[in-house]
Amino acid sequence: MSEFDFHKSTHSSGDAHGECVEVARNIPGTTAVRDSKAPDGPILRLAAEAWVEFAAYVGRR
Question: Which tens digits make up the pLDDT trace of 11-37?
C-alpha cells in the first residue's frame, strides 16, 4: 500500500469514461498524482514548487 493518502480531484470529470485524477498532499514537500482508473499504476511525485507551477498553469487554461 502507498504511503500517500490519495483523494479524487474536485476538477475530475464525472462522465462515463471515468477520467479522474487523484492527488495526495500528505507528505511534506511532495504532491503525488495518479490515474484513479489505475490505482496500482505509476505515481507522479512532484516537488511542492513544481505542483504550484503546474496548478497555476492549468488554472489559466
Answer: 666 655 666 889 999 999 999 999 988
